[in-house]
Amino acid sequence: MLEQLTILAPGLLGASVARAARARGLARRIVLWSRRPETRLQLRAQDFCDAVVDTPEEAVREASLVVLAPPVDKIASLAQQIAPALPAGALVTDVGSVKGDIARLGHAALRADTHFVPAHPMAGSDKNGWEHSTATLFENRVCFITPLPESNAGAVEAVAAFWQDLGMQVVSTSPDTHDEIVAHISHLPQILASTLCQFLDTKDHAWRNYAGGGLRDTTRIAGSDPVIWRAIIEHNRDEILRALHQYQDELQAFASALANRDYLEIQARLERARSYRGGLRVP
Amino acid sequence: MLEQLTILAPGLLGASVARAARARGLARRIVLWSRRPETRLQLRAQDFCDAVVDTPEEAVREASLVVLAPPVDKIASLAQQIAPALPAGALVTDVGSVKGDIARLGHAALRADTHFVPAHPMAGSDKNGWEHSTATLFENRVCFITPLPESNAGAVEAVAAFWQDLGMQVVSTSPDTHDEIVAHISHLPQILASTLCQFLDTKDHAWRNYAGGGLRDTTRIAGSDPVIWRAIIEHNRDEILRALHQYQDELQAFASALANRDYLEIQARLERARSYRGGLRVP
Q: What's the pTM?
Protein backbone atom coordinates (compact mmCIF):
# COMPACT_ATOMS: atom_id res chain seq x y z
CA MET A 1 0.00 0.00 0.00
CA LEU A 2 1.23 3.49 -0.87
CA GLU A 3 1.69 5.86 2.03
CA GLN A 4 0.48 8.85 -0.03
CA LEU A 5 -0.95 8.99 -3.53
CA THR A 6 -1.02 12.51 -5.00
CA ILE A 7 -3.01 13.34 -8.12
CA LEU A 8 -2.41 16.70 -9.79
CA ALA A 9 -5.06 18.36 -11.98
CA PRO A 10 -7.57 15.50 -11.86
CA GLY A 11 -10.07 15.38 -14.71
CA LEU A 12 -11.91 12.27 -15.84
CA LEU A 13 -8.77 10.11 -15.70
CA GLY A 14 -7.14 11.59 -12.61
CA ALA A 15 -10.27 11.48 -10.49
CA SER A 16 -10.97 7.94 -11.69
CA VAL A 17 -7.48 6.99 -10.46
CA ALA A 18 -8.41 8.44 -7.06
CA ARG A 19 -11.74 6.61 -6.94
CA ALA A 20 -10.26 3.31 -8.08
CA ALA A 21 -7.29 3.58 -5.69
CA ARG A 22 -9.69 4.29 -2.83
CA ALA A 23 -12.03 1.46 -3.77
CA ARG A 24 -9.12 -0.97 -4.02
CA GLY A 25 -7.34 0.29 -0.89
CA LEU A 26 -4.12 1.12 -2.74
CA ALA A 27 -3.13 4.20 -0.72
CA ARG A 28 -3.33 5.20 2.92
CA ARG A 29 -3.78 8.86 1.97
CA ILE A 30 -4.98 10.47 -1.29
CA VAL A 31 -4.10 14.13 -1.87
CA LEU A 32 -5.33 16.23 -4.79
CA TRP A 33 -4.46 19.58 -6.28
CA SER A 34 -6.55 21.31 -8.89
CA ARG A 35 -5.75 24.61 -10.60
CA ARG A 36 -9.15 26.23 -10.16
CA PRO A 37 -10.29 27.21 -6.65
CA GLU A 38 -13.93 26.25 -7.42
CA THR A 39 -12.83 22.75 -8.41
CA ARG A 40 -10.77 22.41 -5.22
CA LEU A 41 -13.83 23.37 -3.24
CA GLN A 42 -15.95 20.75 -5.01
CA LEU A 43 -13.29 18.07 -4.64
CA ARG A 44 -13.03 18.70 -0.89
CA ALA A 45 -16.60 17.40 -0.57
CA GLN A 46 -15.68 14.06 -2.23
CA ASP A 47 -14.88 11.00 -0.19
CA PHE A 48 -12.35 9.63 -2.68
CA CYS A 49 -9.66 12.00 -1.36
CA ASP A 50 -8.32 12.93 2.06
CA ALA A 51 -7.03 16.40 1.28
CA VAL A 52 -7.22 18.98 -1.50
CA VAL A 53 -4.39 21.50 -1.27
CA ASP A 54 -3.70 24.84 -2.91
CA THR A 55 -0.40 24.25 -4.73
CA PRO A 56 1.22 21.37 -6.63
CA GLU A 57 4.34 21.69 -4.43
CA GLU A 58 2.33 21.26 -1.24
CA ALA A 59 0.50 18.29 -2.75
CA VAL A 60 3.69 16.34 -3.58
CA ARG A 61 5.78 17.17 -0.49
CA GLU A 62 5.07 13.81 1.18
CA ALA A 63 3.98 11.82 -1.86
CA SER A 64 5.02 8.23 -2.47
CA LEU A 65 3.50 8.31 -5.98
CA VAL A 66 2.40 11.34 -8.00
CA VAL A 67 0.01 11.09 -10.98
CA LEU A 68 0.20 14.04 -13.38
CA ALA A 69 -3.26 14.32 -14.93
CA PRO A 70 -3.53 17.69 -16.73
CA PRO A 71 -4.02 17.98 -20.52
CA VAL A 72 -1.09 16.64 -22.49
CA ASP A 73 0.48 20.06 -23.18
CA LYS A 74 0.77 20.84 -19.44
CA ILE A 75 2.40 17.62 -18.21
CA ALA A 76 6.08 18.39 -18.78
CA SER A 77 5.88 21.85 -17.21
CA LEU A 78 4.04 20.44 -14.20
CA ALA A 79 6.83 17.87 -13.77
CA GLN A 80 9.37 20.71 -13.84
CA GLN A 81 7.34 22.66 -11.30
CA ILE A 82 7.09 19.88 -8.70
CA ALA A 83 10.62 18.49 -9.15
CA PRO A 84 12.25 20.47 -6.31
CA ALA A 85 9.42 19.71 -3.87
CA LEU A 86 9.37 15.91 -4.34
CA PRO A 87 10.68 13.80 -1.45
CA ALA A 88 13.61 11.46 -2.19
CA GLY A 89 12.48 8.19 -3.73
CA ALA A 90 9.16 9.59 -5.00
CA LEU A 91 7.66 8.00 -8.10
CA VAL A 92 5.93 10.11 -10.75
CA THR A 93 3.66 8.88 -13.52
CA ASP A 94 1.12 10.54 -15.82
CA VAL A 95 -1.91 9.85 -17.98
CA GLY A 96 -0.91 11.70 -21.18
CA SER A 97 -2.12 10.39 -24.55
CA VAL A 98 1.20 11.22 -26.27
CA LYS A 99 4.48 10.06 -24.79
CA GLY A 100 7.59 11.02 -26.84
CA ASP A 101 8.30 14.55 -25.54
CA ILE A 102 6.70 13.91 -22.16
CA ALA A 103 8.89 10.87 -21.50
CA ARG A 104 12.08 12.78 -22.34
CA LEU A 105 11.17 16.12 -20.73
CA GLY A 106 9.66 14.47 -17.64
CA HIS A 107 12.74 12.33 -17.12
CA ALA A 108 15.03 15.34 -17.57
CA ALA A 109 12.95 17.47 -15.20
CA LEU A 110 13.24 15.24 -12.13
CA ARG A 111 16.13 14.92 -9.70
CA ALA A 112 18.20 11.72 -9.82
CA ASP A 113 16.67 10.49 -6.53
CA THR A 114 13.11 10.63 -7.92
CA HIS A 115 11.71 8.71 -10.90
CA PHE A 116 9.38 9.47 -13.79
CA VAL A 117 7.67 6.50 -15.43
CA PRO A 118 5.28 7.78 -18.13
CA ALA A 119 1.97 6.00 -18.55
CA HIS A 120 -1.09 6.16 -20.78
CA PRO A 121 -4.17 4.35 -19.52
CA MET A 122 -6.28 3.51 -22.60
CA ALA A 123 -9.57 4.41 -21.00
CA GLY A 124 -11.70 7.46 -21.34
CA SER A 125 -14.94 8.82 -22.60
CA ASP A 126 -16.31 11.64 -24.70
CA LYS A 127 -17.39 13.07 -21.32
CA ASN A 128 -14.57 14.97 -19.67
CA GLY A 129 -14.18 16.38 -16.18
CA TRP A 130 -13.79 14.76 -12.77
CA GLU A 131 -17.61 14.72 -12.37
CA HIS A 132 -17.73 11.80 -14.83
CA SER A 133 -15.04 9.77 -13.10
CA THR A 134 -15.74 6.23 -11.94
CA ALA A 135 -13.90 3.65 -9.87
CA THR A 136 -14.24 1.09 -12.67
CA LEU A 137 -12.97 3.13 -15.65
CA PHE A 138 -9.70 1.22 -15.92
CA GLU A 139 -10.90 -2.31 -15.40
CA ASN A 140 -9.63 -4.72 -18.05
CA ARG A 141 -8.26 -1.90 -20.18
CA VAL A 142 -4.68 -1.58 -21.42
CA CYS A 143 -2.23 0.82 -19.78
CA PHE A 144 0.92 1.68 -21.71
CA ILE A 145 4.04 2.47 -19.75
CA THR A 146 6.87 3.97 -21.76
CA PRO A 147 10.11 3.97 -19.75
CA LEU A 148 13.37 5.19 -21.25
CA PRO A 149 16.44 2.90 -21.40
CA GLU A 150 17.90 4.95 -18.53
CA SER A 151 14.79 4.62 -16.32
CA ASN A 152 15.25 3.02 -12.90
CA ALA A 153 14.12 -0.61 -13.14
CA GLY A 154 12.65 -0.74 -9.64
CA ALA A 155 10.65 2.43 -10.28
CA VAL A 156 9.33 1.05 -13.57
CA GLU A 157 8.24 -2.11 -11.82
CA ALA A 158 6.51 -0.21 -9.00
CA VAL A 159 4.60 2.09 -11.38
CA ALA A 160 3.60 -0.87 -13.55
CA ALA A 161 2.31 -2.62 -10.41
CA PHE A 162 0.27 0.49 -9.51
CA TRP A 163 -1.58 0.56 -12.83
CA GLN A 164 -2.03 -3.19 -12.68
CA ASP A 165 -3.52 -2.86 -9.19
CA LEU A 166 -6.08 -0.47 -10.71
CA GLY A 167 -7.28 -3.39 -12.81
CA MET A 168 -5.33 -2.69 -15.99
CA GLN A 169 -3.27 -4.83 -18.32
CA VAL A 170 0.12 -3.12 -18.52
CA VAL A 171 1.98 -3.02 -21.84
CA SER A 172 5.53 -1.64 -21.89
CA THR A 173 6.81 -0.03 -25.08
CA SER A 174 9.12 2.79 -26.16
CA PRO A 175 7.60 6.30 -26.16
CA ASP A 176 7.92 6.57 -29.94
CA THR A 177 6.34 3.19 -30.64
CA HIS A 178 3.51 4.19 -28.30
CA ASP A 179 2.95 7.38 -30.26
CA GLU A 180 2.87 5.49 -33.54
CA ILE A 181 0.33 2.99 -32.16
CA VAL A 182 -2.07 5.56 -30.67
CA ALA A 183 -1.84 7.70 -33.84
CA HIS A 184 -3.47 4.72 -35.56
CA ILE A 185 -5.88 3.26 -33.00
CA SER A 186 -6.95 6.43 -31.20
CA HIS A 187 -6.01 9.72 -32.89
CA LEU A 188 -6.89 8.71 -36.45
CA PRO A 189 -10.38 7.42 -35.45
CA GLN A 190 -10.92 10.71 -33.60
CA ILE A 191 -10.02 12.75 -36.69
CA LEU A 192 -12.20 10.61 -38.98
CA ALA A 193 -15.21 10.91 -36.67
CA SER A 194 -14.75 14.65 -36.15
CA THR A 195 -14.26 15.27 -39.86
CA LEU A 196 -17.43 13.30 -40.60
CA CYS A 197 -19.45 15.46 -38.22
CA GLN A 198 -17.81 18.66 -39.43
CA PHE A 199 -18.61 17.61 -43.03
CA LEU A 200 -22.23 16.77 -42.21
CA ASP A 201 -22.46 20.14 -40.46
CA THR A 202 -22.15 21.69 -43.95
CA LYS A 203 -25.29 19.80 -45.08
CA ASP A 204 -28.97 20.03 -44.18
CA HIS A 205 -29.13 19.71 -40.39
CA ALA A 206 -32.44 17.85 -40.60
CA TRP A 207 -30.51 14.85 -41.89
CA ARG A 208 -29.06 14.10 -38.49
CA ASN A 209 -32.57 13.44 -37.17
CA TYR A 210 -32.82 10.48 -39.53
CA ALA A 211 -29.64 8.69 -38.46
CA GLY A 212 -29.66 5.26 -36.88
CA GLY A 213 -27.20 3.57 -34.56
CA GLY A 214 -24.45 3.48 -37.19
CA LEU A 215 -23.85 7.22 -37.33
CA ARG A 216 -24.37 7.49 -33.59
CA ASP A 217 -21.60 4.99 -32.77
CA THR A 218 -19.25 6.07 -35.54
CA THR A 219 -19.31 9.67 -34.32
CA ARG A 220 -19.55 9.25 -30.56
CA ILE A 221 -15.98 10.40 -29.98
CA ALA A 222 -16.59 13.55 -32.06
CA GLY A 223 -18.35 14.79 -28.92
CA SER A 224 -14.99 14.92 -27.11
CA ASP A 225 -13.40 18.13 -25.79
CA PRO A 226 -11.85 20.11 -28.72
CA VAL A 227 -9.25 21.80 -26.49
CA ILE A 228 -7.94 18.53 -25.08
CA TRP A 229 -7.86 16.97 -28.54
CA ARG A 230 -6.22 19.93 -30.18
CA ALA A 231 -3.34 19.49 -27.67
CA ILE A 232 -3.12 15.73 -28.30
CA ILE A 233 -3.09 16.23 -32.08
CA GLU A 234 -0.50 18.99 -31.80
CA HIS A 235 1.76 16.79 -29.66
CA ASN A 236 1.54 13.79 -31.95
CA ARG A 237 1.57 15.74 -35.22
CA ASP A 238 4.22 13.74 -37.10
CA GLU A 239 2.87 10.27 -36.34
CA ILE A 240 -0.70 11.40 -37.04
CA LEU A 241 0.26 12.91 -40.39
CA ARG A 242 1.92 9.63 -41.40
CA ALA A 243 -1.09 7.54 -40.37
CA LEU A 244 -3.55 10.01 -41.91
CA HIS A 245 -1.79 10.07 -45.28
CA GLN A 246 -1.78 6.29 -45.43
CA TYR A 247 -5.47 6.22 -44.53
CA GLN A 248 -6.19 8.78 -47.24
CA ASP A 249 -4.47 6.48 -49.75
CA GLU A 250 -6.71 3.57 -48.69
CA LEU A 251 -9.81 5.74 -48.90
CA GLN A 252 -8.79 6.89 -52.36
CA ALA A 253 -8.26 3.26 -53.39
CA PHE A 254 -11.82 2.53 -52.23
CA ALA A 255 -13.16 5.54 -54.13
CA SER A 256 -11.28 4.47 -57.27
CA ALA A 257 -12.66 0.94 -57.03
CA LEU A 258 -16.16 2.39 -56.76
CA ALA A 259 -15.58 4.81 -59.65
CA ASN A 260 -14.33 1.84 -61.70
CA ARG A 261 -17.28 -0.31 -60.63
CA ASP A 262 -14.80 -2.85 -59.26
CA TYR A 263 -17.24 -4.39 -56.80
CA LEU A 264 -15.11 -7.46 -56.22
CA GLU A 265 -12.38 -5.18 -54.86
CA ILE A 266 -14.93 -3.34 -52.73
CA GLN A 267 -16.28 -6.56 -51.28
CA ALA A 268 -12.73 -7.80 -50.59
CA ARG A 269 -11.99 -4.60 -48.67
CA LEU A 270 -15.22 -4.92 -46.66
CA GLU A 271 -14.33 -8.52 -45.87
CA ARG A 272 -10.84 -7.67 -44.65
CA ALA A 273 -12.36 -4.94 -42.50
CA ARG A 274 -14.95 -7.26 -40.98
CA SER A 275 -12.36 -9.89 -40.20
CA TYR A 276 -10.12 -7.30 -38.51
CA ARG A 277 -13.06 -5.91 -36.54
CA GLY A 278 -13.98 -9.38 -35.34
CA GLY A 279 -10.60 -9.61 -33.59
CA LEU A 280 -10.94 -6.49 -31.43
CA ARG A 281 -10.34 -7.31 -27.79
CA VAL A 282 -13.06 -4.91 -26.63
CA PRO A 283 -16.09 -6.21 -28.57
CA MET B 1 -55.83 -4.57 -38.61
CA LEU B 2 -54.40 -6.22 -41.74
CA GLU B 3 -56.04 -9.44 -42.83
CA GLN B 4 -52.72 -10.90 -44.00
CA LEU B 5 -49.18 -9.56 -43.71
CA THR B 6 -46.68 -11.33 -45.96
CA ILE B 7 -42.93 -10.92 -45.52
CA LEU B 8 -40.65 -12.23 -48.25
CA ALA B 9 -37.03 -13.20 -47.54
CA PRO B 10 -36.98 -12.08 -43.92
CA GLY B 11 -33.55 -11.28 -42.48
CA LEU B 12 -32.93 -9.04 -39.49
CA LEU B 13 -35.36 -6.37 -40.72
CA GLY B 14 -38.04 -8.60 -42.21
CA ALA B 15 -38.27 -10.88 -39.18
CA SER B 16 -38.29 -7.85 -36.89
CA VAL B 17 -41.29 -6.57 -38.87
CA ALA B 18 -43.01 -9.91 -38.20
CA ARG B 19 -42.19 -9.85 -34.49
CA ALA B 20 -43.23 -6.22 -34.05
CA ALA B 21 -46.44 -6.69 -36.04
CA ARG B 22 -47.30 -9.72 -33.93
CA ALA B 23 -46.47 -7.95 -30.65
CA ARG B 24 -48.58 -4.97 -31.66
CA GLY B 25 -51.45 -6.99 -33.10
CA LEU B 26 -51.22 -5.38 -36.56
CA ALA B 27 -52.14 -8.44 -38.65
CA ARG B 28 -54.58 -11.31 -38.26
CA ARG B 29 -52.26 -13.62 -40.17
CA ILE B 30 -48.48 -13.40 -40.83
CA VAL B 31 -47.09 -15.44 -43.73
CA LEU B 32 -43.41 -15.80 -44.57
CA TRP B 33 -41.41 -17.11 -47.48
CA SER B 34 -37.68 -17.67 -47.36
CA ARG B 35 -35.49 -18.84 -50.24
CA ARG B 36 -33.61 -21.54 -48.32
CA PRO B 37 -35.49 -24.69 -47.22
CA GLU B 38 -33.48 -24.87 -43.94
CA THR B 39 -34.53 -21.33 -43.05
CA ARG B 40 -38.18 -22.13 -43.82
CA LEU B 41 -37.91 -25.09 -41.48
CA GLN B 42 -36.46 -22.93 -38.69
CA LEU B 43 -39.03 -20.18 -39.21
CA ARG B 44 -41.90 -22.67 -38.98
CA ALA B 45 -40.93 -23.21 -35.33
CA GLN B 46 -41.29 -19.46 -34.54
CA ASP B 47 -44.44 -18.06 -32.99
CA PHE B 48 -44.19 -14.71 -34.79
CA CYS B 49 -45.61 -16.23 -37.97
CA ASP B 50 -48.64 -18.34 -38.83
CA ALA B 51 -47.36 -19.98 -41.99
CA VAL B 52 -44.12 -20.38 -43.90
CA VAL B 53 -44.70 -21.32 -47.53
CA ASP B 54 -42.49 -22.60 -50.32
CA THR B 55 -42.85 -19.93 -53.01
CA PRO B 56 -43.19 -16.13 -53.08
CA GLU B 57 -46.30 -16.46 -55.27
CA GLU B 58 -48.05 -18.68 -52.75
CA ALA B 59 -47.06 -16.32 -49.93
CA VAL B 60 -48.65 -13.25 -51.55
CA ARG B 61 -51.80 -14.82 -53.00
CA GLU B 62 -54.03 -13.55 -50.19
CA ALA B 63 -51.83 -10.77 -48.86
CA SER B 64 -53.18 -7.39 -47.79
CA LEU B 65 -49.63 -6.03 -47.40
CA VAL B 66 -46.38 -7.51 -48.66
CA VAL B 67 -42.96 -6.54 -47.26
CA LEU B 68 -40.04 -7.27 -49.60
CA ALA B 69 -37.05 -7.88 -47.35
CA PRO B 70 -34.24 -9.43 -49.42
CA PRO B 71 -30.89 -7.69 -50.00
CA VAL B 72 -31.22 -4.50 -52.01
CA ASP B 73 -30.15 -6.05 -55.33
CA LYS B 74 -32.96 -8.64 -55.19
CA ILE B 75 -35.93 -6.39 -54.41
CA ALA B 76 -36.95 -5.25 -57.91
CA SER B 77 -36.81 -8.77 -59.36
CA LEU B 78 -38.86 -10.12 -56.45
CA ALA B 79 -41.49 -7.44 -57.12
CA GLN B 80 -41.60 -8.55 -60.76
CA GLN B 81 -41.92 -12.19 -59.72
CA ILE B 82 -44.89 -11.70 -57.38
CA ALA B 83 -46.75 -9.12 -59.49
CA PRO B 84 -49.07 -11.58 -61.30
CA ALA B 85 -49.93 -13.43 -58.07
CA LEU B 86 -50.94 -10.40 -55.99
CA PRO B 87 -54.65 -10.00 -55.22
CA ALA B 88 -56.32 -6.79 -56.39
CA GLY B 89 -55.77 -3.92 -53.97
CA ALA B 90 -52.66 -5.44 -52.40
CA LEU B 91 -50.05 -3.06 -50.99
CA VAL B 92 -46.34 -3.76 -51.38
CA THR B 93 -43.49 -2.11 -49.48
CA ASP B 94 -39.84 -2.97 -48.89
CA VAL B 95 -36.91 -2.36 -46.54
CA GLY B 96 -34.16 -1.53 -49.06
CA SER B 97 -31.39 0.90 -48.11
CA VAL B 98 -31.32 2.48 -51.59
CA LYS B 99 -34.49 3.71 -53.25
CA GLY B 100 -34.00 5.29 -56.69
CA ASP B 101 -34.05 2.23 -58.95
CA ILE B 102 -36.21 0.19 -56.59
CA ALA B 103 -38.92 2.86 -56.48
CA ARG B 104 -39.06 3.11 -60.29
CA LEU B 105 -38.69 -0.61 -61.08
CA GLY B 106 -41.03 -1.70 -58.29
CA HIS B 107 -43.71 0.71 -59.43
CA ALA B 108 -43.33 -0.40 -63.03
CA ALA B 109 -43.45 -4.08 -62.07
CA LEU B 110 -46.84 -4.07 -60.37
CA ARG B 111 -50.29 -4.17 -61.98
CA ALA B 112 -52.37 -0.98 -61.85
CA ASP B 113 -54.71 -2.50 -59.23
CA THR B 114 -51.83 -3.11 -56.78
CA HIS B 115 -49.50 -0.53 -55.22
CA PHE B 116 -45.82 -0.31 -54.43
CA VAL B 117 -44.79 2.19 -51.73
CA PRO B 118 -41.03 1.91 -51.14
CA ALA B 119 -39.75 2.24 -47.58
CA HIS B 120 -36.46 2.25 -45.72
CA PRO B 121 -36.65 1.74 -41.97
CA MET B 122 -33.50 3.33 -40.48
CA ALA B 123 -32.86 0.54 -38.02
CA GLY B 124 -30.43 -2.30 -38.13
CA SER B 125 -27.39 -3.78 -36.58
CA ASP B 126 -24.02 -5.17 -37.53
CA LYS B 127 -25.65 -8.54 -36.74
CA ASN B 128 -27.62 -9.82 -39.72
CA GLY B 129 -30.06 -12.70 -40.07
CA TRP B 130 -33.56 -13.32 -38.72
CA GLU B 131 -32.05 -14.92 -35.59
CA HIS B 132 -31.11 -11.42 -34.36
CA SER B 133 -34.54 -9.91 -34.99
CA THR B 134 -36.45 -8.21 -32.18
CA ALA B 135 -39.93 -6.80 -31.73
CA THR B 136 -38.47 -3.46 -30.63
CA LEU B 137 -35.96 -2.80 -33.43
CA PHE B 138 -38.03 -0.04 -35.01
CA GLU B 139 -39.17 1.84 -31.94
CA ASN B 140 -38.56 5.59 -32.17
CA ARG B 141 -36.48 5.21 -35.33
CA VAL B 142 -37.07 7.00 -38.62
CA CYS B 143 -38.67 5.20 -41.58
CA PHE B 144 -38.33 6.83 -44.98
CA ILE B 145 -41.09 6.27 -47.48
CA THR B 146 -40.29 7.36 -51.03
CA PRO B 147 -43.44 7.40 -53.16
CA LEU B 148 -43.37 8.55 -56.79
CA PRO B 149 -45.58 11.45 -57.97
CA GLU B 150 -47.82 8.87 -59.68
CA SER B 151 -48.19 6.72 -56.52
CA ASN B 152 -51.74 6.11 -55.24
CA ALA B 153 -52.34 8.52 -52.36
CA GLY B 154 -54.46 6.08 -50.34
CA ALA B 155 -51.83 3.37 -50.69
CA VAL B 156 -49.08 5.76 -49.58
CA GLU B 157 -51.12 6.70 -46.54
CA ALA B 158 -51.82 3.07 -45.62
CA VAL B 159 -48.18 2.03 -45.91
CA ALA B 160 -47.05 5.07 -43.90
CA ALA B 161 -49.57 4.10 -41.21
CA PHE B 162 -48.18 0.55 -41.15
CA TRP B 163 -44.61 1.70 -40.43
CA GLN B 164 -45.90 4.20 -37.91
CA ASP B 165 -47.84 1.44 -36.17
CA LEU B 166 -44.52 -0.43 -35.82
CA GLY B 167 -43.35 2.49 -33.66
CA MET B 168 -41.51 4.49 -36.30
CA GLN B 169 -41.45 8.15 -37.23
CA VAL B 170 -42.27 8.26 -40.95
CA VAL B 171 -40.48 10.76 -43.21
CA SER B 172 -41.63 11.07 -46.82
CA THR B 173 -39.12 12.15 -49.45
CA SER B 174 -38.32 11.55 -53.11
CA PRO B 175 -36.29 8.41 -53.88
CA ASP B 176 -33.35 10.47 -55.11
CA THR B 177 -33.28 12.77 -52.08
CA HIS B 178 -33.41 9.67 -49.89
CA ASP B 179 -30.42 8.22 -51.67
CA GLU B 180 -28.44 11.45 -51.24
CA ILE B 181 -29.25 11.56 -47.52
CA VAL B 182 -28.33 7.95 -46.76
CA ALA B 183 -25.14 8.25 -48.81
CA HIS B 184 -24.09 10.82 -46.21
CA ILE B 185 -25.50 9.55 -42.92
CA SER B 186 -25.25 5.81 -43.46
CA HIS B 187 -23.15 4.68 -46.42
CA LEU B 188 -20.26 7.13 -45.94
CA PRO B 189 -19.88 6.22 -42.22
CA GLN B 190 -19.86 2.55 -43.24
CA ILE B 191 -17.08 3.13 -45.78
CA LEU B 192 -14.99 5.19 -43.34
CA ALA B 193 -15.28 2.56 -40.61
CA SER B 194 -14.54 -0.32 -42.97
CA THR B 195 -11.59 1.49 -44.52
CA LEU B 196 -10.21 2.20 -41.05
CA CYS B 197 -10.34 -1.50 -40.13
CA GLN B 198 -8.98 -2.55 -43.51
CA PHE B 199 -6.12 -0.04 -43.07
CA LEU B 200 -5.34 -1.25 -39.53
CA ASP B 201 -5.37 -4.80 -40.88
CA THR B 202 -2.18 -3.85 -42.77
CA LYS B 203 -0.47 -2.98 -39.44
CA ASP B 204 0.68 -5.02 -36.44
CA HIS B 205 -2.39 -7.01 -35.32
CA ALA B 206 -1.33 -6.73 -31.67
CA TRP B 207 -2.36 -3.06 -31.79
CA ARG B 208 -6.02 -3.91 -31.80
CA ASN B 209 -5.62 -5.46 -28.36
CA TYR B 210 -4.73 -2.04 -26.97
CA ALA B 211 -7.76 -0.15 -28.26
CA GLY B 212 -10.28 1.49 -25.95
CA GLY B 213 -13.93 2.34 -26.45
CA GLY B 214 -13.19 4.91 -29.17
CA LEU B 215 -11.98 2.45 -31.79
CA ARG B 216 -14.61 -0.07 -30.72
CA ASP B 217 -17.51 2.34 -31.32
CA THR B 218 -16.04 3.98 -34.41
CA THR B 219 -15.64 0.62 -36.13
CA ARG B 220 -18.68 -1.30 -34.88
CA ILE B 221 -20.43 -1.15 -38.27
CA ALA B 222 -17.31 -2.50 -39.99
CA GLY B 223 -18.51 -5.85 -38.62
CA SER B 224 -21.52 -5.73 -40.97
CA ASP B 225 -22.13 -8.26 -43.75
CA PRO B 226 -19.83 -7.48 -46.74
CA VAL B 227 -22.21 -9.03 -49.29
CA ILE B 228 -25.18 -6.95 -48.18
CA TRP B 229 -23.04 -3.80 -48.11
CA ARG B 230 -21.44 -4.45 -51.45
CA ALA B 231 -24.95 -4.49 -52.94
CA ILE B 232 -25.95 -1.28 -51.14
CA ILE B 233 -22.78 0.50 -52.25
CA GLU B 234 -23.24 -0.73 -55.82
CA HIS B 235 -26.84 0.50 -55.92
CA ASN B 236 -26.02 3.93 -54.55
CA ARG B 237 -22.70 4.37 -56.37
CA ASP B 238 -23.21 7.87 -57.75
CA GLU B 239 -24.44 9.51 -54.56
CA ILE B 240 -21.77 7.76 -52.51
CA LEU B 241 -19.00 8.90 -54.86
CA ARG B 242 -20.21 12.50 -54.55
CA ALA B 243 -20.35 12.36 -50.73
CA LEU B 244 -17.04 10.48 -50.51
CA HIS B 245 -15.18 13.00 -52.68
CA GLN B 246 -16.45 15.88 -50.57
CA TYR B 247 -15.45 14.05 -47.40
CA GLN B 248 -11.99 13.44 -48.87
CA ASP B 249 -11.67 17.17 -49.48
CA GLU B 250 -12.50 17.91 -45.83
CA LEU B 251 -10.05 15.27 -44.62
CA GLN B 252 -7.37 16.77 -46.85
CA ALA B 253 -8.14 20.22 -45.42
CA PHE B 254 -7.63 18.78 -41.93
CA ALA B 255 -4.36 17.14 -42.97
CA SER B 256 -3.16 20.40 -44.55
CA ALA B 257 -3.99 22.37 -41.40
CA LEU B 258 -1.99 19.84 -39.38
CA ALA B 259 0.92 19.90 -41.83
CA ASN B 260 0.87 23.72 -41.60
CA ARG B 261 0.63 23.61 -37.79
CA ASP B 262 -2.59 25.63 -38.04
CA TYR B 263 -3.94 24.46 -34.68
CA LEU B 264 -6.58 27.17 -34.52
CA GLU B 265 -8.12 25.75 -37.69
CA ILE B 266 -7.91 22.24 -36.25
CA GLN B 267 -9.60 23.28 -33.04
CA ALA B 268 -12.31 25.12 -35.01
CA ARG B 269 -13.02 21.94 -37.00
CA LEU B 270 -13.18 19.86 -33.80
CA GLU B 271 -15.56 22.40 -32.30
CA ARG B 272 -17.92 22.38 -35.30
CA ALA B 273 -17.87 18.59 -35.16
CA ARG B 274 -18.70 18.47 -31.47
CA SER B 275 -21.54 20.92 -31.86
CA TYR B 276 -23.01 18.90 -34.73
CA ARG B 277 -22.64 15.66 -32.77
CA GLY B 278 -24.44 17.21 -29.81
CA GLY B 279 -27.55 17.63 -31.99
CA LEU B 280 -27.95 13.98 -33.02
CA ARG B 281 -31.43 12.74 -32.25
CA VAL B 282 -30.17 9.31 -31.21
CA PRO B 283 -27.63 10.23 -28.51
A: 0.90
